[in-house]
Design brief:
Blueprint (H helix, E strand, L loop, with lengths): L6 E6 L4 E6 L4 E6 L24 H10 L5 E6 L3 H12 L1 H4 L2 E6 L5 H14 L9
Parallel strand pairs: 1-4, 4-5
Antiparallel strand pairs: 1-2, 2-3
Length: 133
C-alpha cells in the first residue's frame, strides 16, 4: 500500500530518473530508465544532424505519470534533461505544469541528500503547507 504525499522531487539525467514522493517524515522512491538510453554521440564533420540524441518522450511520459498525483514537484538534475522534461510536460500535460514548483541544477546527490535538498527547498519557499487532497 502506498501513501499519497503532497510533495515530490525528480532527479533526472539521460540514463535515469529518480522520483521521490515525500512528507516531513516519510519517503517513497521510484527509479525509471529510458527504453533506449542515450549514448554519447560524436558529431562528424560534413554530416547531417546536430549530434544530439532526440528526447525520449516515452521516458518523459512515464516520469510525468509518476508525479501526476503530487501537489508540488521540484525537478532537478545536472544537465539539460531536466529542462527537456519540463518542456515535454508543458507541451503534453499543461495541467501538470501547475504543480512544477521549480527547476534546480543538482549534480549527483545520494537519495538522502536529494530528499533533504527538496525538503529544504519547499520549507524555505514556504511551500511545506498542509497537504490538500
Amino acid at each position: 500500500m502506498t501513501t499519497h504525499h503532497f510533495h515530490a522531487v525528480i532527479w533526472i539525467d539521460h540514463r535515469e530518473a529518480r522520483v521521490f514522493h515525500f512528507s516531513p517524515t516519510d519517503v517513497e522512491r521510484l527509479v525509471l530508465h529510458p527504453d533506449h538510453p542515450t549514448r554519447h554521440i560524436h558529431h562528424k564533420a560534413n554530416s547531417i544532424g546536430s549530434g544530439h540524441a532526440a528526447d525520449d518522450h516515452n521516458f518523459f511520459q512515464a516520469i510525468a505519470g509518476a508525479v501526476a498525483d503530487a501537489g508540488a514537484v521540484l525537478v532537478t538534475g545536472p544537465g539539460n534533461a531536466k529542462n527537456a522534461l519540463v518542456k515535454h510536460i508543458d507541451q503534453h500535460d499543461p495541467k501538470l505544469m501547475k504543480t512544477i514548483a521549480g527547476v534546480e541544477t543538482v549534480d549527483h546527490p545520494s537519495d538522502a541528500q536529494l530528499v533533504a535538498f527538496a525538503r529544504h527547498y519547499f520549507k524555505a519557499e514556504d511551500r511545506m503547507l498542509p497537504q490538500r487532497q
